[in-house]
Amino acid sequence: MSQKLEQEESAARTAMADVPHKILVMSGKGGVGKTTISVNLAYAFAAMGKSVGIVDADLHGPNVALMTGTEGHRVYGSDDGTLMPAEAQGGVRVLSIASFLPDSTVPVAWRGPRKSAIIRQFLGQGNWKGVDVMIVDCPPGTGDEPMTVAQLIPDSDGVVIVTSPQDVALLDSRKCVNFVRDMDQRVLGIVENLSGFACPNCGHKVDLFKTGGGERAAKELDVPFLGRIPIAPAMVSAGDSGKPLVADMKDDPASLMLTEIAVNLERGWNDNTNQ
User: Which domains does the chain have, with CATH numbers?
Assistant: First the structure.
C-alpha cells in the first residue's frame, strides 16, 4: 500500500470516528428507491434536531444532489484541503460527485481505484465537524463502492437495506444482508419500499409490486424489519423538486413511516448507550 493511500484511509477513518452516528444505506439492486430513503431519513433526523451530513457514494447515479436541491451547487476546497459540502434545506450537508461535474448529463466513467479514491476524499476531507448523523448512500449491489465505505467506517451504527416487494429484489436483498455480515457490519434492518398504492380518489389499495416480502425476508434472515413505505406520488414530485417528502409533506403516510423509522433508529442508539 502506498503512503498516500495509507494517509487517505487514515484520514477517512479518523474523520468518521468523530461523527457519533453513521448509517450506510444499501440495496441489492437498483430501482428500489434507495436514494429516496437515504435522503428522507437524513431530513427526518434533521427535523429531530440533529446535524446531518450525506455522502453520495453512488458515483454513477449521483441523485442525492437533485433530491436535496443542491444540484448545480459547486463544492470548493479550503486552503487546508477541506471540502466544504453544499448546504441543503435544514442545514443538511451534502457531498456528491454531481457538484464537481460540468452538468448533470456528464457520465462518470471510472474504474474501481478512482472511485475508491473519491470516496476516501469525501469521507476524510469533507467538513463534517459537528455532524451528529452521517448518511452514506451507497450504489446498488456489492461492488467496490460499498466495500470501500464499509472498510472505511468499521464503527458504523450499521446498514439499512432497501428492497421492493418483488421476488427478484428480495433475492438480491438477501445477498446484500450476507454481504453486510461478511463485511463485519451490523444490519440495522430492511425497509420495504414501493409497498402498495392507495388510489387518491377512492382509497382502494393495489399491491403493484406485491407486499410483505421485505418483512418475510427479514424474518428468514433474522434481521429487524423497519417498515413499509407505500408508493406515494407526492414522494416522486418532492424528490424531483429537491424538497424531500419528510420536509415538505410531514403528514403524508410515507413521510410518517420514514420519520418513525428514524425515531426507532435513534431509540436503538439510546438503548445501546444505556446498556
Answer: 3-274 (3.40.50.300)
- Helices 34-47/253-274 angle, 10° precision: 70
Residue 52's φ and ψ, nearest 5 degrees, are -125, 140
Give the C-alpha separation, 115 to 111, whole Å.
6
Length of the chain as a residue count: 275
Q: pLDDT by residue (tens digit) across 172-227?
A: 888 899 999 999 999 999 999 987 766 666 665 766 666 677 888 888 889 999 99
The Cα 234–Cα 6 span in angstroms is 45
Query: In the predicted model, what is the mean pLDDT of residues 60-67?
Result: 94
Report whether 86 contacts 70 (CB < 8 A). yes
Among 39, 174, 59, 186, which Cα is nearest to 115's?
59
